[in-house]
Amino acid sequence: MASFLSPKRSRFITPVNLPLLSFALLIIIGTILLMLPAAANGPRLAPVDALFTATSATCVTGLVVVDTGSRLSLFGQWVVLVLIQCGGLGIMTFSTVLIMLMTGRFSFIQRSVIQDTFTHRPDTRLPSLVLHVVIFTLVLEAAGAALLFLRFSGMYNPSRALYFAVFHAISAFCNAGFGLYSQSLMDFSGDPLVSLTVALLIICGGIGFLVMLELKRVLFRSRKAGRARRLSVHSKLVLTLTALLLTVGTLGFLLYEWNNSMAGLSLPAKVMAAFFQSVTARTAGFNTLDFGKMANVTLLFTILLMFIGAASGSTGGGIKVNTLGVLFALSRSRLRGEETTSIFRRTLTAETVGRAISVLVVAVIVIYAATMALTVSELGTTIHAESRGLFLELLFEVVSAFATVGLSVGVTSKLSTLGKLILVVVMFVGRLGPLSIAVALSGREPRSTIQYAEENVMIG
């Protein structure tokens, strides 16, 4: 016991590298379980396929190299579902809940990790925050499963319908994109119940628990408690940009795919399909249209949406809408000749602006390096004339992996072993954040995001 709690070991397990270690351990456990004969229908999964599936589920990405619904057994599907739930909320959340139930308190490291994950400021009510995270998750997933059950109950027997409803509800809320259908949700492109339920679950998971908590406090706070609580700058920024991106995304898909992948759909079905793709392209990975048959301009447009991603403190990935908002504010202030950067009349610190720039730069470097590596592993020195179109497809898969989206143009399952391992690394880096990985490996303790209280904007 003394050796385990030695100062050297204590310095190694810090709030910075603990998420990295916990995610890595969860992936290893998931890989081992998925390699068991009981996890597969037919021959057991190859080690690289088990590792890829475990990483994709833990990092709530949704990219697959084996069909979840047919290749994995019921046991294998449950392994994937548990990895999705643990990876979506963070394994530290579950361990914190267990410790709180047993002891009524948690350690400094756990407090720091929870604060860095879900909030942007020191919060003395962390037990309440963790409790709300669990309640939001259970309530929203249960509500989503109940709505999906209404549709699936007309297709399967009650037990199978309930299983399909629960699986897709959890996968949607955690922004994972794993489904039990080989064509994702393409069979439900004209079904408003399934499409809108899944889309709303994705949006709730993508805006983050802090935003949901603030919305709940604003909407349901008693007037007797005094002045109504207002939304923070962080929540205003997330909600504003989320609404803007959903609108732009919907219009973009309608414009580019009206007579392409949407041909033959009615006007309401086209609008619903465009909205669904706009929602899922930024974080989740479900699809009701075939991305493998979309126009090149649509794929480029989708890459941009995937790169932006969801909100900080959510289950989604990407550079985050918070970062985008700060970069827009910085550009506006510089064009106006202003020395300070502000959002909603709130001045941002130079440290916050610098962090946003760093996130963008590191993300671009990671995607560029991964795309180059994947191009070498899959195409080698093949000349451009003999590989037309493949570069865009490989870039699409890399951005999807980095942003933990999970959309694919059908390339992932055809990758070589080295190509799959490259995407495994990209998914891992994308889920934890490239800056967090770099800091954890360097062994340095940066200024935590919770200390940016003066501007209330969480970056990363």
Please describe the topology of this protein:
Layout (H helix, E strand, L loop, with lengths): L6 H6 L5 H17 L12 H12 L15 H16 L1 H13 L4 H11 L7 H27 L5 H16 L18 H16 L1 H12 L12 H25 L9 H15 L14 H13 L12 H15 L5 E3 L2 E3 L1 H30 L10 H13 L14 H16 L1 H9 L18
Antiparallel strand pairs: 1-2
- Helix content class: 55-70%
Give the amount of beta strand, in percent: under 5%
Strand order of the largest sheet: 1-2
Q: What are the secondary-structure elements, in order, as H or E?
A: HHHHHHHHHHHHHHEEHHHH
From the alpha-carbon coordinates, what is the Rg to the nearest angstrom? 22 Å
Total DSSP E strands: 2
Largest sheet features: 2 strands, antiparallel
Describe the structure.
This protein has 460 residues and is mainly α. The protein contains 18 helices and 2 strands. The chain has helices at 7-12, 18-34, 47-58, 74-89, 91-103, 108-118, 126-152, 158-173, 192-207, 209-220, 233-257, 267-281, 296-308, 321-335, 350-379, 390-402, 417-432, 434-442, and strands at residues 341-343, 346-348. The protein is globular, with a radius of gyration of 22 Å. The relative contact order is 0.12.
Which key terms come to mind for this protein?
single chain, about 450 residues, mainly alpha, two-stranded antiparallel sheet, 2 strands, globular
